[in-house]
Amino acid sequence: MIYPEFNKYKPYVDKDYPLCNAYQTEEGHIFFIEPWFYVGLQGFKEKREERFNEILAAIDELVKKNEKLIFTGDFEMPFVHKDDYLYREIHDITDPLNIYVEDKSRGSDYGD
Questions:
Q1: What is the phi-psi region of residue 98: left when phi exceeds 0, alpha when psi lies from -120 to 50, beta otherwise?
Q2: Which of 12, 32, 96, 102 is deepest in the core (most CB within 10 A)?
Q3: Contact assessment for residue 67 and residue 28, using Cβ atoms and an 8 Å cutoff
Q4: Contact 79, 72 (CB under 8 A)
Q5: Is the CB of residue 57 less than 8 Å from the CB of residue 64?
Q6: Model's pTM, two decimal places?
Q7: How far apart are the C-alpha atoms of 75 and 32, rounded to whole Å?
Q8: Span 7-31, pLDDT tens digits
Q9: What are phi and psi of 41, to 5 degrees?
Q10: 3: which residues sit within 8 A by CB, 6+ positions away?
Q11: What span, in angstroms and rounded, lies between the C-alpha atoms of 108 and 101?
């Protein structure tokens, strides 16, 4: 899968997780973008496009400050399991920026 938002970074292939996009910075920092994190990121791009660049800038700052990161869909059930890595979900990025998307999806009314 190609994630154009991260094209400025060098692709990194982890032998344990070759199907998960990972990247390396010029400084040698490694980070993973799990598919469910990327889905959440795209949701913010769709619904809050006017602030999307702020989200990407915040991700870039985290990558600069941390040598090992995993951007995950759910830190309690991540796809990538690595010791000494910091896990971050999409809301860890967007909440401090006061960028929110209200989830109005709900289950079916049938059966009520």
A1: left
A2: 32
A3: yes
A4: yes
A5: no
A6: 0.90
A7: 13
A8: 999 999 999 999 999 999 999 999 9
A9: -60, -40
A10: 21, 33, 38
A11: 21
Q: Which two tokens stand for residue 87?
A: 């896990």
**DSSP string covering the chain:** ---GGGTTSEEE--TT-TTSEEEE-TT--EEEE-HHHHHHHHHHHHH-GGGHHHHHHHHHHHHHH-SEEEE-S-TTS-S---TT-EEE-HHHHHGGGT----------STT-
Q: What is the pLDDT of residues 60-74, one digit of tens each?
A: 999 999 999 999 999
Tokens 């951007």 belong to which residue?
71
Measured between alpha carbons, how far is 44 from 61 in angstroms, rounded to an integer?
Answer: 18
Amino acid at 31: F
